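Bit of a strange request maybe. I'm writing a small parser for structure token strings and I need a real example to test against, not something I typed by hand. Could someone generate the tokens for this chain?
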Amino acid sequence: GDEIILCTGAVGSPQLLMLSGVGPADQLAAQGIPVAVESPGVGQNMRDHPNVSVRFMVKEDVPQDPNGMRALRLRYTATGSDTPNDMILSPASLNTVVRDDNPAHTVNCGLYLAAGKGELRLESADPNTPPSMDYRYLEEDWDRVRLREAVRLCVSLLQHSAYGGIIEEIIAPTPADLESDEALDGWLRRNISTSYHISGTCKMGTDDDPMAVVDQQ
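Reply from user aminoacidic:
Good idea to test on real output. This should exercise your parser:
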């Protein structure tokens, strides 16, 4: 054929485009790369599924199954959300043979359609130099509101009497972290992490969308 489609993922694709002269003109100029096509959306609109982990200890006589807890997931819609199933609570089992130094279990509280958007930027004209990524987690109020609700829901479930014979102690967040929205926001910022689900850095869109990198075909 006369067409080659090369895709290198949500990190590599915008980097490759910018190295080839396709991207935001200011970033290309900063690296001494001639502009072939000015496309300001390359590397913008970076999306992810930010999450935080509620951590707890189980009682000594509870059997440790490294794989068993992965059978459980809770998908739900945040209060006031127009997006169905935008949240997830996901127990993450830990292999106690590998993690003897840290036997805590976790439930990941994930935000699966964040309002916030990050940015991927070219750091060098050398293709071996990784780009920089600014996730900009929790900059949007709506993201903080939903994650606060997720953490409080998770804690309330773990405190239910049904878990009385299993859970010894919830160790994070602490009662002090849960005292107010402000305290919980601080805990969220200190503990927020990636789900490694990056997307959106080469946005699809219509011809009249200046931030679209590819069309709908």
